[in-house]
Amino acid sequence: MSTPVSRTGGVDDRRMTTRCNVAVGRTMSGMTAHANLAEAFVAEQARCRELLAAYRSLPNNAGAIGAMFIDQMLRRADRAVMEGDVVAMLHLYQEMQETK
Fold this sequence. Notes:
- By secondary structure, this protein is mostly helical.
- It has four helices and no strands.
- Helix 2 (37-56) runs antiparallel to helix 3 (64-83) and helix 2 (37-56) crosses helix 4 (86-98).
- The N and C termini lie far apart (37 Å).
- Mean pLDDT is 77; it is low at 1-28.
């Protein structure tokens, strides 16, 4: 199936957004079906950044390894957003949800 293109030559955002909403609705637990990937992704990034700060604040560098993994995940998430890679964003969204 090809990507829908608008009359101006760009991608038809309405249809792509609908596809993302459907995909996110299947992967998001506890979120409503009308939430879109961008909103949910940003919320998970913020939660993981708070976790990163908590791991870094543990005494005697007890959370250094966990902080390293969370930091790498957040860097990949930032890159996926900058590149507009929706597939990577979906995978990273699931990874961020599993981060504790």
